[in-house]
Amino acid sequence: ELGHIMWEYVGMGRTKAGLEKALSLFKEIRKTFFTDLFIPGTPEGVNVELEKALRLEDFILMGELVANDALHREESCGGHFREEHQTEEGEAKRDDENFFYVGCWEYQGDDDKAPVLSKEPLEYEIIKVQTRNYKS
After folding, report:
1. Residues near 7 by Cβ (< 8 Å), separated by ≥ 6?
2. Are 93 and 85 in contact (CB under 8 A)?
3. 78 phi-psi bin (left φ>0, alpha ψ -120 to 50, beta other)
4. Is 69 exposed, middle or buried (0-12, 13-18, 19+ CB in 10 A)?
5. Which is deepest, 14, 27, 32, 132, by most CB within 10 Å?
């Protein structure tokens, strides 16, 4: 289910509506995961099922993080393509004025609190950053 959500709503072509849908579905999955999870095994030795559950938790949180960041980024750039942000020719439409940074989302310790975005400006000294055109 998690892979389907990522493919369908957070994949190559992203939309605001699709990303919002993904975040809603992730919230449901996370709630079910933490309330209905049963992990077989004993406290002695290595519990492979516990390892799998912890890995799945990481995947859920990573999916939410990617979808949240993609929803916030109102542009198309590199491997991030928002269908609402493209040229008339269908090429990526960058917004360097508002999104020319490296971002880091900080978890606030509570699922009801929105993560906080920290930004570090990008500074290119040797190359000129420009929109790629794959058609010419």
Report:
1. none
2. yes
3. left
4. middle
5. 14
Kindly report the pTM of this predicted structure.
0.85
Length reported for the chain: 136
Given CATH 1.20.58.100, say whether it is the number of domain 2-121. Answer: yes
What DSSP designation does 100 have?
A: -
Give 56-94 pLDDT, tens digit per residue: 999 999 999 999 999 999 999 878 899 999 988 888 899
Listed by start position, the domains of the chain span 2-121
* Cα pseudo-dihedral 49, 54, 59, 63, rounded to 10: 140
